[in-house]
Specification:
The complex is a heterotrimer of chains A (256), B (267) and C (271).
Chain A: E1 2-10, E2 16-25, E3 30-34, H1 41-48, E4 56-61, E5 64-65, H2 71-79, E6 81-85, H3 96-101, H4 110-115, H5 120-132, H6 148-161, E7 166-170, H7 178-195, E8 198-203, H8 206-212, E9 215-220, E10 223-228, H9 235-242, H10 252-255
Parallel strand pairs in A: 3-8, 3-9, 6-7, 7-8
Antiparallel strand pairs in A: 1-2, 1-4, 4-5, 9-10
Chain B: H1 16-41, H2 45-61, H3 73-100, H4 109-123, H5 127-138, H6 142-166, H7 171-178, H8 183-217, H9 225-234, H10 238-266
Chain C: H1 15-41, H2 47-66, H3 73-103, H4 107-110, H5 117-128, H6 131-142, H7 146-170, H8 174-182, H9 187-221, H10 230-238, H11 242-270
Classes of the chains: A alpha/beta (256), B mainly alpha (267), C mainly alpha (271).
Chain lengths: 256, 267, 271
């Protein structure tokens, strides 16, 4: 369970990205966060694993505060949180397998990690993760030899290898074409369901939000302006989130 | 409503005329400095002419004495060994240092500043000077040479390396940090793969420099063929001297070619 | 709870990967083997001699280094100034002479890369010859003093700068050349109005870089009698006058750092 308690984030340049967020997300829920660029979606997600420190308030996971954790405790908490990125953030020159194994680093001892001596179980988990995202045969190819959709799958596999309880996805499909985006989103949803992982996804596109989310949270200017089921997320509600009328012709897919 | 193209910010790169101004003025300043320097040192262009004449006259005396060749191999081997160890130790020492001196992989701001300062100071001392400094302390022989080259290699490699590391894609680093990996593991998995090829190319370059350097550190008593050269020079045995010079020349040429070939295979 | 409780056994890597891993392991083993061999065969003095040398010298050295002798400061500054001037003259000579030579080593100006081969070979030959050897020869030929050092630096710089200049020339955009020819310009116009403006910034930048290197080299050439701060330095080194050595080193390091900083800033504006 993830709790945001009166969370405020102000960046060093003075920008107030989050202005008081209170939110509770039950275990296993698939939440999609929507809003314009600059609404605070990225900041919200990054506060969960403390990549962004809060200026006020805190984030708690299963009762333990993430915002106040430091050093080894923080790393332990992070090892249970998987994250995937818009730009995939893979090590291009390394093999797919090595990229996925890097997800195990939070769980391996320092020496094993540094020398690259992963256990058989680590290797098995890595291969298994690749199988679950559908690209087991790519294990020994260089990461940059794969297509965009496949690279994002490697990113998901890396997060999966952590055996996470929480998954964070920051605009995971923004760099992919629509059919690939749908494939990746459905993979994400399926895995989240199979393993009961609490998932937070940032998205731009309304149609995807409606299609995959258990719950939609709309943000605007650092506050939550909508919180409900996809059924409740009418076009009118989205207009409130985006602060302007949605033209059926010029769907936000183009404007994002 | 289409935006007015004239009002858009310019995407044309800065006009090269600014660069040319800087270039021309730099060269002009250099020319001025040149005249100041000749006035101060008493150097004149006629010296250049006379010097070149003397040089070629002297060169005529330098006929290599082939019978001396067998005596050259052992010192040459020692020279190569000094260069090899200097490169090896220098690289090993440089690795932790360069990550501490790079803004994106250092532990804290104080360590970063200290590491960078140390590097700047160490880099401003030429390798031969290190050898000259260490020779009286560490006794005659190859040891001061190895230590001197190690220190110099460490400094140069750490500077080159830290520039490369700071230019690395930060994305994978963020991803691994987010998954709970500690600083060292983040470096090994997210930074090292990105810089490995370039770093190896640097190491080969350093080896090239070290071979040249170890050839001459013998002149200050730090082992290798340089000592032999000095000895023969003091005996005015110019035949031997020029034989040594020829061998040195061929050696450096060979190592340079090898290094260039190996580096081209890396990129 | 995660569903993947009993993962299957991991598959083995394909043959190509295993070969690559083996090759890498072999390389590491070779490097270590060479290191061990080298250490064993190198004529290193016995440990007690090293320790004795350290003990006898390290303490006075450190003591001297912490307290640089300000009495030699004027000498340090004046000889470092001489070193500086030597480097300026050497670099300038090198740059001036390298400029025409580089055009003889640039394939695109001569009409083909093979015509550049003799030029490039000469430059490589000059560059490969260790600078300090050149200095020794000059000292033997023209007598000790800064002239020998200047000549050595000048000639060596020709080799270095000649190659870099040639590379720069070969890397220029052929577009402006064509443009000038299209307006009816001959080879000289192409040269003056297309080639020269394009290469000027990089020339200047490399000249400055070479100056940085030459300044360091000049401090060292004095060790063999070719002028500059090297001579007073080696004299005091041989007599182990550590506090004076420390002062001289301080001046050297300070000069080099300042020159590097200024040169670095200008070079950033150039490229």
């Amino acid at each position: 369970m993830i709790e945001f308690r009166d969370l405020e984030v102000t960046y060093p340049n003075g920008v107030k990205a989050l202005k008081g967020i209170d939110l509770t997300i039950p275990k296993g829920q698939f939440v999609v966060i929507v809003g314009l660029s600059g609404a605070g979606k990225s900041t919200l997600i990054r506060a969960v694993n403390h990549l962004v420190p809060p200026s006020k308030g805190e984030v708690r996971i299963d009762g333990r505060s993430v915002s106040k954790a430091t050093g080894r405790d923080l790393r332990r908490i992070r090892s249970k949180i998987g994250m995937i990125f818009q730009t995939f953030n893979l090590v291009k020159r390394s093999s797919v397998l090595r990229n996925v194994l890097a997800g195990r680093l939070g769980h391996t001892s320092a020496i094993r990690g540094l020398l690259g001596l992963f256990t058989k179980r680590d290797l098995a988990l890595a291969h298994d993760s690749l199988r679950r995202v559908g690209i087991p045969e790519k294990a020994w190819q260089r990461a940059d030899a794969l297509s965009g959709g496949q690279q994002q799958r490697v990113g998901i596999a890396r997060a999966l290898a952590q055996q996470p309880e929480v998954m964070l996805a920051d605009e995971p499909v923004a760099s992919l074409d629509p059919p690939t985006s749908h494939a990746v989103m459905s993979d994400l949803k399926r895995i989240s369901r199979e393993d009961g992982i609490t998932t937070l996804v940032n998205l731009h596109f309304i149609d995807m939000a409606r299609e995959y989310a258990d719950r939609i949270v709309g943000m605007r200017d650092g506050v939550i302006v909508f919180d409900g089921t996809p059924d409740e997320a009418t076009d009118q509600a989205f207009e409130d989130i985006y602060g302007r009328p949605i033209d059926v012709e010029k769907d936000l897919r183009g404007a994002a | 409503m289409r935006p007015d193209p004239a009002a858009l910010p310019s995407t044309v790169p800065e006009r090269p005329r600014g660069q040319r101004m800087v270039a021309s003025s730099t060269l002009a300043v250099f020319l001025v400095l040149f005249f100041v320097s000749t006035w101060q040192t008493g150097f004149s262009l006629s010296d250049l002419w006379i010097g070149t004449g003397d040089f070629f006259r002297f060169f005529g005396r330098l006929v290599p004495d082939l019978s001396y060749l067998p005596e050259v191999w052992a010192p040459i081997l020692e020279t190569l060994q000094i260069a090899y160890l200097g490169t090896l130790f220098g690289t090993s020492l440089a690795l932790p240092l360069l990550f501490l001196a790079s803004a994106n992989t250092s532990t804290d701001r104080v360590t970063l500043a200290v590491a960078r300062t140390v590097l700047t100071v160490l880099r401003s001392i030429p390798d031969l000077l290190y050898a000259a400094l260490l020779a009286p302390i560490l006794a005659i022989g190859p040891l001061p040479g190895v230590v001197a080259l190690s220190l110099f290699s460490m400094a140069v490699l750490a500077k080159l390396g830290s520039e490369t590391v700071e230019a690395v894609d930060p994305g994978p680093m963020e991803a691994l940090r987010a998954s709970g990996a500690g600083r060292n593991r983040v470096i090994v998995y997210a930074v090292v793969p990105q810089v490995a090829a370039t770093m190896t190319s640097f190491v080969l370059y350093i080896f090239e420099i070290n071979v040249r350097a170890s050839v001459i550190i013998g002149l200050v008593g730090a082992g290798g063929i340089g000592e032999q050269l000095l000895a023969r020079l003091n005996f005015f045995a110019y035949g031997d001297v020029s034989m040594i010079i020829v061998v040195i020349f061929v050696l450096v040429l060979a190592i340079d070619a090898l290094s260039v070939w190996a580096r081209s295979r890396l990129i | 709870m995660p569903a993947a409780s009993t993962p299957h056994a991991p598959p083995a890597p394909p043959a190509a990967v295993r070969r690559a891993n083996l090759a890498r392991a072999g390389l590491v083993a070779l490097i270590l083997l060479l290191a061990v061999l080298t250490l064993v065969t190198l004529d290193l003095p016995p440990l007690e001699r090293i320790v004795r040398g350290l003990r006898n010298n390290a303490v006075p050295l450190l003591r001297g280094f912490i307290r640089p002798n300000w009495h030699v400061a004027p000498l340090a500054l004046s000889s470092m100034a001489e070193t500086f001037f030597m480097a300026v003259i050497g670099t300038t000579i090198g740059g001036v002479l390298a400029f025409p030579l580089s055009f003889l080593a640039a394939g695109n100006l001569l009409g083909g890369t093979r015509y550049a081969v003799p030029g490039k070979t000469i430059l490589v030959a000059i560059r490969t010859f260790p600078e300090i050897l050149l200095a020794i020869i000059f000292v033997a030929a023209t007598g000790p003093g800064p002239t020998a050092g200047i000549m050595a630096m000048g000639i060596h710089s020709i080799g270095f700068l000649g190659k870099i200049f040639a590379d720069v020339i070969e890397g220029i955009d052929p577009g402006p050349n064509e443009a000038i020819r299209a307006t009816g310009g001959g080879s000289l116009q192409v040269f003056l109005w297309s080639v020269v403006p394009q290469v000027l910034p990089e020339f200047a930048s490399n000249l400055l870089y070479r100056f940085e290197i030459n300044l360091r080299a000049a401090t060292v050439l004095g060790l063999v009698g070719a002028g500059g701060i090297g001579l007073p330095l080696i004299q005091r080194l041989q007599f182990r006058r550590w506090s004076e050595v420390s002062m001289l080193l301080l001046v050297i390091v300070a000069f080099v750092i300042v020159v590097d900083a200024i040169s670095g800033r200008i070079r950033r504006r150039l490229v």
